[in-house]
Amino acid sequence: MPEGPSIVILKEEAAAFAGRTVLRVRGNSREPIQRMAGCRVLALRSWGKHFLVEFEGFSLRIHLLLFGSYRIDERRATEPRVGLDFGDGGELNFYACSVKFVEGPLDAAYDWSADVMNDAWDPAQARRKLRMQPLALAADALLDQNVFAGVGNIIKNEVLHRIRVHPESRIGGLPPRKLGELVEQAREYSFDFLRWKRAYVLRQHFQVHTRTVCPRDGQRLGYRKHLGLARRRAFFCEQCQRLYPFG
């Protein structure tokens, strides 16, 4: 599943479509996608894992889910979920994704301060939200899009290893300093992810995600196929990532 930094890259790659008018709409989505025909793109935005094409009065929301993809100025052999053709021959195609419409202004629908990639990101608000769920596992808390919009499983695993916190630690058991590190690194690692992905070296920087040995102490990494409420894969070191219980 693409994480927030990958959606920022999509937004950058599609930036040239801002200000242009949709000539035709194609696709097999059950949503009323033809409503976009003849409409002018006001802006291209992202919130967490959502890619947003803003029009007058409404926006197209794309979520790439687990296996979604996109093509700019080219097509795959299969029919897209939604494809936008522009007057000068340019096109934007999305496959195997969720297609929804957001009615009204995006500023009324989205809390930009919850997006770890956004300039409006508010770490103090994230800490307040975390304190309200003391029993949550650290692994689940990092994947909570209401707290850390854009954080996905790779970022989760790498952040917890970076701050030496076991994924099954309870949020209420984390010392204030560790809670602060979790919030800080959720954003900092996301921008590291963005920088590495732009340079096509992201996987080279994985410390624990899909790895078998901890680079810090040489211990074999722990692995859970379905950890926490989110039921996502977890890679972690039992030696250097401390388990913080609560209560």
TrEMBL record:
InterPro entries: FPG_cat, FPG_N, H2TH_FPG, Ribosomal_uS13-like_H2TH
SUPFAM superfamilies the record matches: N-terminal domain of MutM-like DNA repair proteins, S13-like H2TH domain
Domain called Formamidopyrimidine-DNA glycosylase catalytic: residue spans: 2-93
PROSITE patterns: FPG_CAT (PS51068)
Family: Belongs to the FPG family.
Catalytic activity: Hydrolysis of DNA containing ring-opened 7-methylguanine residues, releasing 2,6-diamino-4-hydroxy-5-(N-methyl)formamidopyrimidine
Gene Ontology biological process terms in this record: base-excision repair
Gene Ontology MF annotations: damaged DNA binding; DNA-(apurinic or apyrimidinic site) endonuclease activity; lyase activity; oxidized purine nucleobase lesion DNA N-glycosylase activity; zinc ion binding
Lineage: Bacteria, Pseudomonadati, Pseudomonadota, Gammaproteobacteria, Lysobacterales
Keywords tagged on the record: DNA damage, DNA repair, DNA-binding, Endonuclease, Glycosidase, Hydrolase, Lyase, Multifunctional enzyme, Nuclease
One family name in Pfam for this protein: Fapy_DNA_glyco
Identification of the protein by name: Endonuclease
